[in-house]
Write a structure and sequence with these properties.
The chain is of the alpha+beta class. The chain folds into two domains: 71 residues, Winged helix-like DNA-binding domain superfamily/Winged helix DNA-binding domain (Arc Repressor Mutant, subunit A, Orthogonal Bundle); 38 residues. The protein is built from six helices and three strands; from the N terminus they run ααβααββαα. The longest helix is centred in the C-terminal third of the chain and has 22 residues. It is elongated, with a radius of gyration of 19 Å. It starts with a helix and ends with a helix. The relative contact order is 0.13. Keywords: DNA-binding, Transcription, Transcription regulation.
């Protein structure tokens, strides 16, 4: 499965967002995702499996718990693909930064 296909699902994107903040237990992930998306525990487990099987996450057992962590490797594939298109927004972001800085300077000048 291609990285964009994996992240094409909003539930899996949300799980990646959760894991970007650090390692989380499967129970914690399930609780958050069930509250936000209203899906069952088995459905959350299936999304975790897709992420794991496609290299976006890895799991390690800790007693009875399963702790998931983000594997950023597949995100590099997306970053590389996006690299071709950065030129379309990089200049605009630089211009925005310039305008923001001018606004700050103008506010400080009495």
């Amino acid at each position: 499965m291609h990285a964009f296909e994996v992240l094409g699902d909003p539930v899996r994107r949300r799980i990646v967002e959760l894991l970007a903040d650090g390692e989380r237990s499967s129970g914690d992930i399930t609780t958050t995702v069930r509250e936000e998306f209203g899906i069952s525990q088995p459905a959350v487990s299936q999304h975790l499996r897709v992420l794991r099987d496609n290299g976006f996450a890895f799991v390690r057992p800790e007693g009875a718990r399963r702790l998931y962590a983000l594997d950023a490797g597949p995100l590099a594939e997306i970053d590389q693909w996006l690299g071709r298109y950065r030129r379309f927004w990089a200049q605009r972001l630089d211009a925005l930064d310039t305008e923001v800085r001018r606004g700050r300077r103008d506010r400080r000048t009495p």
